[in-house]
Amino acid sequence: MSSAPVTISSPAAPSFFGLSHAALARRMEAAGEPPYRADQLYAWVYRRHQRDPAAMTDLPSTLRRELPRRLDLALPPPAAVHATPDGLTHKFVLELADGARVECVSMRSERRSTLCLSAQVGCALKCSFCATGLMGFERNLRPEEIVAQVMLMGEFHRWQDERFNLVFMGMGEPLANLRAVVEAVRIFHDPQGLNLGARRITVSTSGLVPQIRELADQGVPVGLAVSLHATTDALRDELVPVNRRWPLAELIPAARDYGRTTGRRVTLEYTLIAGVNDRLEDADRLGTIARDLPSKINLIPYNPVPGLPYQRPSPEAVEAFAQRLYPRAPAVTVRHTMGGEIWAACGQLGGLGPGA
Q1: Exposure check for the chain: N or C terminus, fewer CB within 10 A?
Q2: Is residue 138 flagged as an active site residue?
Q3: Selection from 157, 181, 155, 154 nearest residue 168 by Cα
Q4: Would you state the pLDDT for residue 352?
């Protein structure tokens, strides 16, 4: 295993991290190499975490010398890395080839590590309480730029936890970049690569109903997290404007069908905002929605964003809301905020904080 990030780059070569195993095998064969070279390369990069061709000792020496011209094994350099005082959460600001910047986050605990990935630079959905929405939309990320986030964070932490979870809950709307997200998931899931089980991958959405249904048909039963945040169309139109296109009457059946098709419980993400959506009648309606689905509820106390008028509820208000839900909903958790000190918590990504 390499002890430090290695940069092997050729601008003319395609990124290794955007190639499926099958595509890599075809590329090797077209170059006059046996297709099993793809097995060897996937093993070196994704299992042994080695990006230096000179160290890939079971490859012919000629191929090792030529590999940098054929494949780009570089990762985007971090423009900044911010760590919380306890060292458990890190926010990475990555500099992409065109100068765009995207953020991703690693969160570690005694039980597990979770890597939070971005799917877009910025976001077009303009959820009223989210920092990323203030950026506007720049562009979609390519599959290799999504996979590279995992590889960079893994290398930074020296792959100390091979059983990490992945959540597409960073910058952007993942289902607005569905093709690239699914391609990246297939690379993560590949048994010859990182071999991440689908149950360790969760894709979030603000409610793009056609794409929810399309994702269900992709054959990769990843977890689905619906950013609900409101239990009436009137309030959700304000907080999550995409609701005006696909209101609750369309979103909830799509989520229900996704759960039934994949055999996975859908997570209902609900950001609690003081005086906005944290009343007991909101909890009652949320419980009714949850009972109509194979679902679980994840309550997220609001993480403040400078310039926005919203406030975090008191711990007592969060507890009262959760207690109201417990007998009414299948499963309820309250998310423990990680990374708020470095503007890395839910809803805070997008150029906030020192050095971003």
Answers
A1: N
A2: no
A3: 181
A4: 52
